Sequence to fold (714 residues):
Amino acid sequence: MTKPVSTPVNNLEKIRKSLGRRNRSERLFRWYGRLAIFIGLAAVTVLFTDIVSKGHGAFRIAYLQLDVEYNQDLIGVDNLSDPKQLILANWQAVPKQALREQFPDVSGRSDKRKLYGLVSNGAGFDLKDRLLANPLLLGTQEKVWILADDDIDTYYKSWLDGEPYAARLSDKQVKWIGELHDQGKIRLQFNSNLFTRGDSREPEQAGIRGAVMGSLFTLLLTLMLSFPIGVAAAIYLEEFAPKNRWTDFIEVNINNLAAVPSIIFGLLGLAIFINFFHVPRSVPIVGGLVLTLMTLPTIIITSRASIKSVPPSIREAALGMGASKYQMVLHHVLPLALPGMLTGAIIGMAQALGESAPLLMIGMIAFIVDIPGGFSDPATVLPVQIFLWADSPERAFIEKTSAAIMVLLSFLIVMNTSAVWLRKRLERRW
Amino acid sequence: MNAINSVTGAKADVKQNLEVADNQVTVGSCFTEAPKMTMRNVNVFYDDKQAIHDVSVDIAKHEVIAMIGPSGCGKSTFLRSLNRMNDTVESCRVEGEICMDGENLYAPKLDVVELRARVGMVFQKPNPFPKSIYDNVAYGPKIHGLADTRVDLDEIVENSLRKASLWEEVKERLHQSGTGLSGGQQQRLCIARAIAVSPEVILMDEPCSALDPIATAKIEELIEELSQNFTIAIVTHSMQQAARVSHRTAYFHLGRLIEVNPTEQVFTMPEHELTEAYITGRFG
Ligand SMILES: Nc1ncnc2c1ncn2[C@@H]1O[C@H](COP(=O)(O)OP(=O)(O)O)[C@@H](O)[C@H]1O
Ligand SMILES: [Mg+2]
Fold:
């Protein structure tokens, strides 16, 4: 076993030989990386195109133009300020009569029912709102655009796209729509209901406002509770707590808590807040409390990491100047750690916004029409609304589901972008 | 080959001498008349490991005392026990008596906040706060409530920066960040920050080790000026620096204080052979 003599010349040869192999593995590795990124991007692209192609239609909805007459006798109202009359009134009679006038030769009960089915069941109430906002209209006539029924909307959109879907319409209804189209009396308009209304059994009347407000109240409470508690816990653990077995134990358990599946927090919330403390079901208070439990570990962990990243020399400088520990934290550590803490909070909030499982457990899955106005009003949240709509049989809910997903995703994108922006913006280097 | 042998030979000599050092008393003039600080039988431990063994020494008023010795010999540990910065190290325990003007710094009723206002510190690596130059200097006076008005505070800031010979360089940009200055300027800013609360003693732990020679020269000049008003204890690994700035020099070896003598004497006629071995560069 004699070792080959290493001379500068034969070393150089060896290095050159190995160079080819090293470069090859580097090239290969780069291609693996590119492939991985390509797969990731492709998955995101497929997901987004699918959602957008399904959901973009929901932002426009079909309206019919009809000549309506606000006839006192027909509606059964002569005084718009009498609440009793308003309740007993037959609002839907107005669009029905307008339809009869538009198609005078329709006769027979079943044909008439089909004719009335062209407009939304809620069309009468829309006209009522219009009348209440404008009482002088009572007794007059006007041309208005009236919300079409969801089946009509679905058919009309598919027909415009060249692949008519008429499974739920009769031949007569198809013919009527054709006539309305020729006269320019049916058109797609921006679907403002989607953003201004709560949930509804009628797809054309359903909106995400209720769910958005529910999410807002729930998240607001989550943020108000989890941020101060999380930051205080992180500061105490990092700066004040003695390092011993107890704090190790606490640290391990915070990490465990972060790994607990969210549905468990829902069960916990059900057992503690609802069954024990008797907080009502389905309200943002309980939702906020449950999501606080869920986001606390995230906020504590990210806050501790950003406190740790503050260089110890700053702490020494402050203590060396005679600052108390509390002043050191408040004047120096906290301002430097805050961007990281806020980033963590935003990411935690984004997680909470997309969470549905724990909220199902505490009843935030109820069908709620009214838009919640506070923390104690029954509410649902965006992801649960998506779940509810995805589960509905009406075809028109398909595009609504995708539209709601688009709204949810855009919230999440905005939140995550602002977290990245905040980090870039406030990050300090030393 | 020969050279290597002779070096290891020297090391072996020193090792032998260290056995003696175990019950070694400090040689030279440890004690002074009217001392500002007195340390008696100070032992410092990190958990069970003893870093300082039985050190007794005085620091006279308005003197500059330099602490030298091989790295790891406990200079920083000793210095940091003078303003109780060691309190922040959980495993650290200090025994013995450390007094300033006759008052025990480790007495239970003594407040470290007050102590650190009276004994300022400048660290090895310049560590200005990531705030404006003005706020850096104003921080101490603010937290200790030393300035009643904005005008007072402005005056303190200007005076401190002047004393730290930084005023001319930064007066136009007081409100820019202190971390934007050069290394040497940052260290002078830290000195200005320390003297803004008019401490009685200033501790400096290798204040020039991160600086270039020109910045170092400026700081050394500054130390000389400051010694007219402050008592200064400076740790340095540069013997030339100790020779240039200090009045007395203390030589530490493996946690023991070997020799304290007027600087001139330490560098010309050291009393102890370990000191001599160190200053002649036989180890370090
Ligand atoms: N925080 C600490 N924990 C444990 N041991 C320490 C700590 N700081 C210093 N030491 C030990 O104490 C001894 C003296 O260190 P130090 O005072 O930093 O020396 P010097 O400043 O002279 O280089 C060294 O052996 C070092 O390992
Ligand atoms: Mg040191």
Summary: Chain B touches chain A at residues 83, 85, 88, 90, 112-117, 120-121, 123, 125, 127-130, 139-140, 143-144, 179, 190, 193-194, 197 (CB under 8 Å). Confidence is low (pLDDT under 50) at residues 1-20 of chain B. Residues 2-21 of chain B form the longest helix (20 residues). The CA atoms of residues 250 and 260 of chain B lie 4 Å apart.
